[in-house]
C-alpha cells in the first residue's frame, strides 16, 4: 500500500513535501556527506539550520522579541510538571481550567509543585462544552492560569483566547499550535509537543515571555530551568536534532502554504465539511460536542449503532483512511485534521462515510 490519508491524533501526518525533502537529504544533508542526525549540534551547519528554524517560526507566528523560543524534550507531559516548577514559588497557587483529559493531566502533574486551583471544569458536562468565562473562579494571586485551547481526546476547542488580566496565561497548544494565527502577546507561555502540527515526537516547542524566565521558582537542577535553556539557545545538552530539523522543514512548508492565516482558512473548511457530513447524516453519525466549542483539529464521532464500529474501521482502512479509531476513553471514532491533512483527505472521508451509511443502512 502507498501513502494513505492519515487521521491519526498523534504522532500524526506530516506534510508529504516535508517527508520527501527529508528523504532526499537523508544520506547527504546540506552537502555535509552525512545525515543531519549524524552530526554535532554545535557544528556550523546545524546551528545555522536551528537558527533559521527559529527565525521561520518567529515570522510565521509573529513572535515578539520579548519572547524566547525554546526547542525542548520530554513531551508536553514533562512540562506539565516543569511549568509550575519554573513559574511558581513554593506555596504559590496556580489556576487550572480543565476542559478535558489533557487539562486534567496537566493539573495532576502540577500538583506536587504548586497549589492547584481548578478555576473551572467541564467535567460535569462530560467535557462536551466549555465552562463560560464568567463562571471561572480565578485566584487573583495565582502565579499563572493554565488551560488547554484544544482538547485532543474530547474534541473541544476555545475559539477565543480567554482574558486573565495581569495573570500570565499558559496554554498547552499541543494539538492546535500553528493551525491558525496566534496573538502571542496574549500569552505568558505557550508549549506544544511537536507530534501533531510540527514534526516528530520527542520535541517540545515553547514560546515564553522573557520576564517570566526570571521567576526562579525554587531550587532545581539547571536542566529543569527554562531560563538556562533560553540562555543556552536550547543547547544546554544535546537537543533532538532530527526533530528540530523536521520542525524547521515544516515551518518552511507552512510559509510556502501562505502562513497561518491560509492554514486557518483551510482548517476551517476541512472541519466544516466533516461536521456537515456528521450533522447531515440524520443521526447515523453523531458528534456530542456543543457546536460552539467544536474542535477544528480533532473530531470525535460515534455511529448510531456501536456494533458497526468494527466494520467501519476495517472498511475505512481498506479504503486508505488510516487511524479513525476513537480514543479508548470515548470509544467510537475520531478524525484528526491537523495542518498536514489536506481537504482532499476529508473529502475522501466524508464520501466513505456516506457510502458506508448507505451500505449498512
Ligand atoms: N497535551 C495535549 C493537548 C495532547 O494532545 C497530548 C498528547 N496527545 C499531550 C498533552 C501529551 O503529550 P506528550 O505525549 O508529548 O507528553
From TrEMBL:
Superkingdom, taxonomy of origin: Bacteria
A single GO molecular function term of this UniProt record: O-phospho-L-serine:2-oxoglutarate aminotransferase activity
InterPro entries referenced in this protein's UniProt entry, alphabetically: Aminotrans_V_dom (IPR000192), Pser_aminoTfrase (IPR022278), PyrdxlP-dep_Trfase (IPR015424), PyrdxlP-dep_Trfase_major (IPR015421), PyrdxlP-dep_Trfase_small (IPR015422)
EC number: 2.6.1.52
Biological pathway: Amino-acid biosynthesis; L-serine biosynthesis; L-serine from 3-phospho-D-glycerate: step 2/3; Cofactor biosynthesis; pyridoxine 5'-phosphate biosynthesis; pyridoxine 5'-phosphate from D-erythrose 4-phosphate: step 3/5
Modified residues (N6-(pyridoxal phosphate)lysine): 196
Intracellular or extracellular location(s): Cytoplasm
Keyword Transferase among UniProt keywords: yes
Protein name: Phosphoserine aminotransferase
Gene: serC
